[in-house]
Design brief:
The structure is a homodimer.
Chain A (H helix, E strand, L loop, with lengths): L8 E3 L5 H7 L1 H4 L6 H10 L2 E5 L4 E3 L7 E7 L2 E6 L5 E7 L9 H4 L5 E4 L3 E7 H10 L2 H26 L2 H18 L3 E2 L2 E3 L4 H8 L3 H13 L3 E4 L2 E4 L2 H8 L14
Antiparallel strand pairs in A: 1-2, 2-8, 3-7, 4-8, 5-6, 5-7, 9-10, 10-12, 11-12
Chain A binds a DNA duplex through helix 9.
Chain lengths: 257, 257
DNA sequence: CGAGGGGTTGACGTTGTTCAATGAGCGTGG
DNA sequence: CCACGCTCATTGAACAACGTCAACCCCTCG
């Protein structure tokens, strides 16, 4: 995959309501979200942009002036080691705020690249400040959203540090299945997962070859089939059990506040 | 080490000013912090508590009503895998807000345990709300503090996923040295690191035996000596180079806002 | 003086890597 | 339409990295 350097085709006044509403499901799982709040937010999110697979969407070290909500496609949060290998630290799916933490941090410590073709809508940092000022509950919601990413990071540390090969792959698939389900992107225990074995290796700390063997083992155990970009989970409870997957860390219970 | 279950000896009206001021160095590295702001914060942080090595200071899954600033001692953020092994995800040193993210999250996905004897001061969540309401800059500062933890998590993912044995150990030592320096806990490239090889293994994804061998290799290369609880870095530039350590992810540059 | 935690060592088994070769799928251009 | 090049996946064999087990030591604390 060519490392194309960020060719962003921004287009304004995109009619976001249908998509945006659909993909705010993640927020809705956690907070009550009124019509008014939704309207306040939607009003600010009108600038969309498209990226092709391989594009760098947000570049490490650059000062950010806006944050982005992913509407379509798969993205990856990643960082490079001095000798050039890439470590992926999170996969992002539609409905995820991919770089909301650039609001408090100003400058990101990592990049975000498009895994498949992607569409985003932008939210200016000054609009975030504005929303928070007008309605302080937004601060809580945004802060919370960035903290669930941190929680996912912790689970990945556990995954990389403590789980064996098969369990590790299984856990990644469990997480992505669970997150996809929230935004309505699953169909009878199948979901789109347009991630190559090389990229899975970069996420799991394995060589691509070994990822292939581990996927084959999951297939032989009649738990998972990955055909091109589609993953099917044949035995969800058994897979969860094998992976030691507990969705608690995704914070999907509704809360007040 | 016995897994003692949280025996907290709280004591009120602790005279924190000398310690608190000293250990707000971490915040000061990033934000200008006025006398008034300091006073507002200090006024709320008067309840201290002591823990012994091995105590669980904050327990996974419990609803939290306050957050804690570590004044003395070493602590660890950790989580357990279903089959009982522990994964450590961050070490905490004096000056760290160990569980500030329990404010937005309400309920933590992991535990915090005392590695050595510890002293903390508490800050009630309602006082946090109060501080933010009276002076909105506190929201930014607190949010920022939780985001630097997330950045550290990302670096650990990279460490676990992409670095080999020696480099991995080296990187951990670089991080802890760097963070210790900010709060004035280093002395000529030495610093206290009261972490056993078992615990280092739990943090780095290695067996304790292997950690021993890796430390020996760093010693043989004349880079590091770890004598009991004291680590001495003999060649800081070479160690940094070996580890591929770039302190950027600690966000130590001052910023406005 | 004994118990127990922490560290060290060596032999051996397991897990994952590397390299190189092979094949399937897909878009492109003739 | 086929031929070509490309990316992605698969396989086998040799090799390196790390884990496990068991024995041993040192130090500290009671």
């Amino acid at each position: 995959m060519a490392t194309r350097t960020r060719s962003m085709r921004a287009r304004s006044t995109y009619r976001i309501d249908p998509n945006l509403e659909r993909f705010l499901a993640t927020v809705r799982k956690r907070f009550e979200f009124s019509r008014e709040e939704f309207a306040m937010l939607a009003e600010k999110m009108t600038t969309a942009a498209d990226f092709e697979a391989g594009d760098v969407m947000v570049e490490e070290g650059k000062r950010a002036t806006h944050s982005s909500l992913l509407l379509e496609g798969y993205a990856a949060r990643s960082k490079y080691t001095p000798n050039g290998e890439r470590q992926i630290m999170e996969f992002q799916i539609p409905g995820d705020f991919i770089d909301l933490h650039s609001y408090p941090l100003e400058c990101l410590d990592h990049s975000i690249t498009a895994v498949s073709d992607c569409t985003i809508v932008q939210l200016d940092h000054k609009d975030i400040s504005d929303l928070i000022e007008r309605h302080s509950r937004f601060a809580r919601i945004f802060w919370f959203a960035t903290m669930t990413d941190a929680s996912i990071h912790r689970e990945w540390i556990l995954n990389l540090g403590s789980r064996g090969g098969v369990e590790r792959v299984a856990h990644l698939l469990c997480e992505m299945y669970c997150r996809s389900e929230i935004v309505g992107l699953t169909d009878n225990h199948s979901f789109e997962f347009p991630v190559t074995q090389v990229q899975m290796g970069e996420a799991l700390g394995f060589s691509a070859v070994h990822v292939g063997r581990l996927l084959r083992e999951l297939h032989d155990r009649k738990l998972v089939t990955k055909d091109r970009k589609i993953v099917h989970l044949h035995d969800w409870p058994a897979l969860q059990e094998l992976a030691g997957f507990d969705p608690e860390y995704l914070y999907l219970q509704p809360r007040k506040g």
